[in-house]
Specification:
Number of domains: 6
Strand order of the largest sheet: 26-27-29-30-31-32-33-34
Largest sheet: 8 strands, mixed, barrel
Shape: elongated
Helix content: 40-55%
CATH superfamily of the largest domain: EAL domain
Strand content: 25-35%
CATH architecture of the largest domain: Alpha-Beta Barrel
Number of helices: 30
CATH class of the largest domain: Alpha Beta
CATH topology of the largest domain: TIM Barrel
Number of strands: 35
Length: 885
């Protein structure tokens, strides 16, 4: 009805026909029922919401009245195994209660009728198919259709009950593994426990004997098949699980598919269901746990598979514990003997005290064994490492992953600091947790590493910055000059005719001359300038903050004047001059590499101008390029016309006193200049493509020659061949080596490939990959000129190498220079620690030989034994050496 204000209301109209004043009329009554209708609608919506909540509830909700079910929501239907309400509505409640729980349920219902409250209870119901289901629930009084009723809210706790049952079973397995002494009794107990979890009338446990390659059925109970004997490893389902390391639930269909694929064979009576799980040790299966059924009414599920997998893990752990205990008992006697005589420290630490220390531990720490037992481990650790070592111990206690080995310093009883390489593992001692520690004294190795690390950025001979440090400083200086719009200068200096002095007066005097030159160069520059030695007789200077070209020219003149003064060495005056090339930033290059290259070009121009002068780089300097082109052309002809040849320098094995092998050294029989050494042409070959064919020729020629010597009566002779940087980096290197060995017939073990330390470290990861490929061929690998580069020791230990060659610069003054002696000793110690051989180059005196021999150097080469020889001369040398024995 619409009211005067336009609003709508609901009305209820009742009319009656009657007579009024003698006429027919209607009596109409109208009542506003808006609020009543709203209340009814709200009630309907509330009932709908409640119905939906009940329908969607994960808890089972059921109502019974007069002892019969009158309502059940979907969750309750699922618990009772029903798909439709009609299957349970009207059914007596007690038919759905497990017989064991009927008395309890009756008591609860009677308590409700008396108006008492009842607590939550765990009970068992019966599904319609008769299978039990574990539930927990609450019952409360209810009114249904105006009659007394009971509403029950129940939750399915079957999964929880199974989990609890499994947990108890696993605990029992762990318990019996320590209490049951005989293995048959242990297996029988496991069988009983599995039988409480699933159908297990047919149960067996098989272990694989790796030595005999047989399956041993340690325990076997079966209703159909007798216990099988030991069988060879075959193709049964048991072996399949052992092979794959995965659980298998095999129905007849699954079994037939495996047979069809040839994975398994038919053995014994077929079962309806077969369930096997592996016993794992790490990533490998060492046995199989199996249950099987011959009854259609006893089938296995994926849940059974998961449960048996859990059981197998605990059985495997129990077997491992038993095996470990047996092994421990057997090894205790051996351990004590080994520990007492071991050169490393061995100790057992428990409850902040040493429970056992061997004699070596006492020797390393300086305390006697009784004193050590009164100390805590932290009392020995150097204070710089105490916190880190303590944190590792705490992390191990927390179960965190820590590295098995750790290096740290200790302080001996006398105050001396020593480095230890220690490893620790958790053990039981006296039935309680303890730590077994093993520690090696690596102090000498650490000292050697520190000495070698100090060589990374400085030239060993002069102490000047080396190429690596110079390049670092140059790059920084270029960046600063660019940022501040400044200039800088480069001086590239090469000593004139230094090779003549070095060859005529000896390497020792040549080295002293280089040291004196370095001192004069440093004295002639400002603080903040850099003087570096690039190698050989080449030096380079970095002069930041140059404002004019005249400034760098003045520095060059000052250096030339200083070089012209005599060098007083070993009682004689030596005269040497220098050729200097100059380049300026930014005129002659915008990066360090270009500046150095152009200064190098200018230096060669100074050589052309008669030496003992300086030249400032100009863009017109093409003459040197032309000269290089001419030399390159001659070198190409030399390769084609057979002008290249090899000389061979013998290597002496100190353990036998015999010639072990030879090193192949390249020479050029130049038609005009005569015998030419690599230093005069290999630099050009390296920066052109010629180094690659020269390298291939050298490798094949050396292999062929040594093969001929082997056939002539020197079967164990080997040859060392140097690989250049570009040759080592070419992708075809491994194939070239294969071809040379194949075509010449030289055994791979007779070939030793040498790479320099600096080349090896240019790209360490790539180097490791290439060397592994070469090692796979069977050849040997040596690091040449070791000690003058900048090896990373972390990479060095990863290199698959056989030999370190001590550079001759360390050998020359080894008997007079304590630093050279210390470095050589350190290299030998480092090599032997890494299980490498050591070859000393440039041995020229008996004193050097004796020094190196007493320090266990393995092999030597040098003028003391023989100069490099032509092939014919070397063959005669080898023949004489063989006759002399």
């Amino acid at each position: 009805h619409r009211l005067r204000d336009g609003s709508i209301i609901d009305v209820q109209v009742v009319s009656h026909v009657l007579e009024f004043a003698g006429r027919h009329a209607a009596l109409v009554q109208a009542q506003d029922v808006t609020e009543r209708k709203r209340a009814a609608e709200a009630l309907r919506e509330s009932e709908e919401r409640y119905r939906r909540l009940v329908e969607m509830s994960p808890e089972g909700i059921a109502i019974h009245s007069d002892g019969k079910v009158v309502f059940a929501n979907p969750a309750a239907l699922r618990m009772m195994g029903a798909s439709r309400p009609e299957e349970v509505i009207g059914r007596p409640v007690m038919e759905l209660v497990h017989p064991d729980y009927i008395p309890v349920v009756r008591q609860r219902l009677q308590a409700l009728q008396r108006g008492e409250s009842v607590p939550f209870i765990e009970e068992k119901l019966l599904r319609l198919d008769g299978t039990p289901v574990d539930v927990e629930g609450q019952a409360m009084p209810f009114t249904h259709l105006d009659r007394p009723a009971v509403q029950m809210v129940v939750r399915d706790i079957s999964q929880r009950k199974r989990a609890e049952k499994l947990q108890r079973a696993l605990y029992r397995i762990a318990e019996i593994s320590g209490s049951v002494q005989d293995m048959p009794g242990f297996y029988a107990s496991v069988h009983q426990i599995v039988g409480e979890l699933m159908y297990a009338r047919n149960f067996y446990l098989a272990l694989y004997d790796d030595a005999k390659r047989t399956l041993n059925f340690e325990y076997f109970v079966d209703e159909v098949d007798p216990a099988p004997p030991q069988v060879k490893h075959g193709k049964t389902l048991t072996e399949y699980v052992l092979r794959t390391g995965e659980p298998l639930l095999a129905s007849p269909a699954v079994f037939e598919r495996l047979v069809a694929r040839g994975e398994v064979e038919v053995v014994g009576a077929p079962s309806v269901d077969w369930l096997g799980v592996p016993l794992m040790r790490g990533d490998s299966a060492f046995g199989v746990l199996v249950v099987q059924s011959y009854l259609e009414t006893a089938r296995y599920t994926e849940e059974d598979r998961d449960i048996l997998t859990f059981v197998s893990q605990h059985v495997a752990a129990a077997l491992d514990r038993r095996r470990a205990a047996d092994a421990l008992r057997e090894s205790e006697a051996r351990f004590r003997t080994l520990a007492e005589t071991a050169p490393c420290a061995i100790f057992i630490y428990q409850d902040d005290g040493f429970r056992y220390v061997n004699p070596a531990a006492a020797s390393i720490t300086g305390y006697n064994r009784e004193e050590l037992r009164t100390l805590a481990f932290w009392d020995l650790v150097h204070q710089d490492f105490r916190e880190a070592v303590r944190e590792r111990g705490l992390a191990r206690q927390r179960g965190e992953s820590v590295a098995s080995r750790y290096e740290f310093k200790i302080e001996r009883r006398d105050g001396e600091e020593r480095w230890l390489d220690s490893s620790a593992s958790s053990v039981e001692f006296g039935g309680r947790p303890a730590v077994l520690g093993i520690a090696f004294d690596v102090t000498e190795r650490k000292r050697a590493e520190e000495q070698i690390k100090s060589l990374a950025y400085h030239d060993v001979l002069t102490g000047l910055p080396n190429r690596l440090l110079f390049n670092d400083r140059l790059n920084v200086a270029v960046a600063q000059a660019h940022r501040h719009q400044q200039r800088l200068g480069i001086l590239f200096l090469d000593l004139d005719r230094f090779k003549v002095i070095n060859d005529s007066l000896g390497h020792s005097l040549g080295d002293r001359l280089l040291q004196a030159v370095a001192e004069r160069l440093e004295a002639g520059v400002r603080e903040g300038d850099t003087v570096a030695r690039l190698g050989g007789d080449e030096f380079i200077l970095l002069l930041p903050g140059i404002t004019r070209a005249e400034d760098i020219a003045k520095v060059a003149e000052k250096i030339l004047d200083a070089m012209r003064l005599p060098f007083r060495l070993e009682g004689r005056d030596l005269f040497v001059t220098a050729s200097i090339g100059l380049s300026l930033y930014p005129e002659d290059g915008l990066d360090g590499e270009t500046l150095v290259k152009n200064a190098d070009i200018a230096m060669y121009r100074a050589k052309e101008q008669g030496r003992d002068n300086y030249q400032l780089y100009t863009h017109a300097m093409n003459e040197r390029a032309v000269e290089r082109l001419a030399l390159e052309s001659s070198l190409r002809k030399a390769l084609a016309h057979g002008e290249l040849l090899l000389h061979y320098q013998p290597l002496l094995d100190l353990s036998t006193g015999r010639v072990h092998g030879v090193e192949a050294l390249l020479r050029w029989d130049h038609p005009e200049n005569g015998l030419t050494f690599p230093g005069d042409f290999m630099h050009l070959a390296e920066i052109t493509s010629l180094i690659l064919p020269i390298g291939v020729w050298t490798l094949r020629t050396a292999c062929a020659q040594v093969k001929r010597w082997q056939e002539a009566g020197h079967p164990h002779l080997s040859v060392a061949v140097n690989l250049s940087a570009r040759q080592f980096q070419q992708p075809e290197l491994v194939e070239h080596v294969k071809r040379a060995l194949r075509e010449t017939g030289l055994p791979a073990r007779s070939l030793d490939l040498e790479i320099t330390e600096s080349h090896a470290m240019q790209n360490a990861e790539a180097t490791i990959h290439t060397l592994r490929e070469l090692k796979a061929l069977g050849v040997r690998i040596s690091i040449d000129d070791f000690g003058i580069g900048y090896s990373s020791l972390s990479y060095l230990k990863r290199l698959p190498i056989d030999t370190l060659k001590i550079d001759q610069s360390f050998v020359r003054d080894i008997t007079s220079d304590p630093d050279d002696a210390a470095i050589a000793t350190a290299i030998i110690a480092l090599a032997h620690t890494l299980k490498l051989r050591v070859v000393a180059e440039g041995v020229e005196s008996q004193q050097q030989l004796e020094f190196l021999s007493t320090r266990q150097c393995d092999r030597m080469q040098g003028f003391l034994f023989s100069r490099p020889l032509a092939a014919g001369e070397c063959g005669e040398f080898l023949a004489r050496a063989r006759r002399l024995g």
